[in-house]
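User: Predict structure, ligand xanthosine-5'-monophosphate.
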Amino acid sequence: MNEHILVVDYGSQVTQLIARRIREIGVYTEVESNDISEKTLQEHINKGLKGIILSGSFASAHEEDLKLKLPPSIFQLGIPILGICYGMQAMAMELGGMVNSLENREFGYTEVINCGNSQLLGDLSDFTEDNQRILKVWMSHADTVTILPKGFDKISYSKTTSSIAGMENTDRKLYALQFHPEVTHTAKGSEILKRFVINICGCNLKWNMPDYVDKSIEEIKSLVGKDKVILGLSGGVDSSVAAILIHKAIKDQLTCIFVDNGLMRLEELNQVKKMFSNNMKMNIIYVDSSKTFIDKLAGITDPEAKRKIIGNEFIDIFQKEANKIKDVRWLAQGTIYPDIIESSHGKKVIKSHHNVGGLPEKMSLKLLEPLKHLFKDEVRRLGKELGLDDEMLFRHPFPGPGLGVRIIGEVKSEFLKLLKKADNIFIEELKNNINKETNKCWYDSISQAFAVFLPIKSVGVMGDNRTYEYVIALRAIKTNDFMTADWFHLPFDLLSKISSRIINEVHGINRVVYDISNKPPATVEWE
Ligand code: XMP
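Assistant: Predicted complex:
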């Protein structure tokens, strides 16, 4: 890591977006929690820190017990700092200004006036009105800066409440915005961030994928030397991209282990075999453990218990296989940056999302995580650079415990067979039918779609006969970050076609329902 921007996270839901936007501009960015130690901050400075951004927060800068810590002596560093939302208020309070509650809170779309001639906003505007430059922005705040700290100028204010929407002190290179430039609703958001990182911090556009590939291959080679590496391949984007990258660097020193838990989608195993063993000629050990998993899950209905069994069983099997390979020193994982940020910044756990979690503690191997600084969209760009096809790269996410959490209650082989077929029909139809608005297939317009097996029977009629069979629920959602999600409004005629196909082709299902719940309060998966 050389020249870079540091985002200090105060717990806002959109902190990661700040880092992603800046990387999209072409500047490398890292996120650290607000309790970053002096030592870590110093490491960043030594490695070429060019600017700092203080994120938004759920906290309050003017209520003593809700205040969050600022990194030590941050305003004395002489490095440019941009405070966003809470970050602006924390900066104001720290430097002798004042923050108070707003009478009318501002949430969502807002118009602010750009006072003009500031370093941060220049003469940016989305439109002008009465000779004033107006910016369309996204706000989310109940507090506001009421008195500017000494040496600061007001650079923007809200058209509706007149509250201060931006301030700067160019002598001290301190800048702040009450609105969120990182969300796409702020029309000129990326331009504002670009002005900060390029014009003010003086960063160069050095962050791009081809360079990253070359650099990581060199890094992996020098880290691993002649050692052997193992990797748990799941067929998902992250582990696949990690495997290809590492394979490019160290060839046959890498062995992948693919544990078939029987909880994968129809044809998934064959796709993996074709892609990695046949096309890419990687060393892969396939372990058929489907029976073991089903046996272990017999009689278990509690979702968390099922997740734990599947996770632990995977670890046991993986470990046994790994022990058979001599002289392994490294365990490679497809950990990506959001995993690191979320686990280190203490977010609350609703479901235990474990894929290979737990492995590093159990195995005394060194960890190789070549994607640990990348966001998902960057992993996809990297995958493309490495020659992975779009079908693989743009696949909807699939949970670690697989279909185990898409069969409600006890997992049985009989249920798995029905679910795999139904799910395959659903996905096939989403791929084969075009969304005329976007001219893409429905699958590409949806963030995630899948079928869920409900182990309840209902009465139906087929021909002249009464049926008493199981139910399939279909779930399709649209989301940016999977933290919140909206159910996807699929056309009724397409739903009708899918339902008919499932009922006609999957013997044992006589009813199909469509899930129309958002997250929150529902979650994406049913378990
Ligand atoms: P939830 O159900 O928590 O899902 O709203 C959000 C996203 O996470 C995926 N998911 C998992 N992914 N291991 C994973 O890698 C897991 O254990 C797991 N559980 C849920 C889910 O499919 C959705 O994309």
